[in-house]
From TrEMBL:
This is Sulfurtransferase. GO terms for molecular function: transferase activity. Residues 9-100 form the Rhodanese domain. It holds the Pfam family Rhodanese. InterPro entries: GlpE_sulfurtransferase (IPR050229), Rhodanese-like_dom (IPR001763), Rhodanese-like_dom_sf (IPR036873). It comes from the Bacteria. It comes from Streptomyces mangrovisoli. Signal peptide: none annotated. Transmembrane segments: none annotated.
């Protein structure tokens, strides 16, 4: 399965967070699109509207398991998607900003 390391992500890369609502509210990457894996198929249209045309979708969760499932699904739909190795745990450990919806510092559940 295609994957990338946190260090390979650049500002402006399209990020899809598939964690559940409580995890998102605790803290997330600023600018990420949030569609929980439990609602993903029903809300798939939100992704296709928001994702850049001919761009890559970087899928992230807490540690990489759920995002791997969504990445495989997206690849089957013909979307250029990659799993973010290590997920939000590695994101935070690498010093990348984690924020709440109010823009305040957040944390990873």
């Amino acid at each position: 399965m295609p994957s990338v390391q946190i260090g390979d992500l650049k500002d402006g890369d399209f990020l899809l967070d598939v964690r559940e609502d409580d995890e998102w509210q605790a803290g997330h990457a600023q600018g990420a699109l949030h569609i929980p894996i439990s609602e993903f198929v029903a809300r798939y249209g939100e992704l296709t509207e928001a994702a850049p045309q001919d761009g890559r979708v970087h899928v992230i969760c807490r540690s990489g398991g759920r995002s791997a499932q969504v990445t495989m699904y997206l690849a089957q739909q013909g979307i250029d998607a990659v799993n973010v190795d290590g997920g939000m745990q590695v994101w935070a450990a690498a010093g990348r900003p984690v924020v709440t919806d109010e823009g305040k510092p957040g944390h990873v559940l």
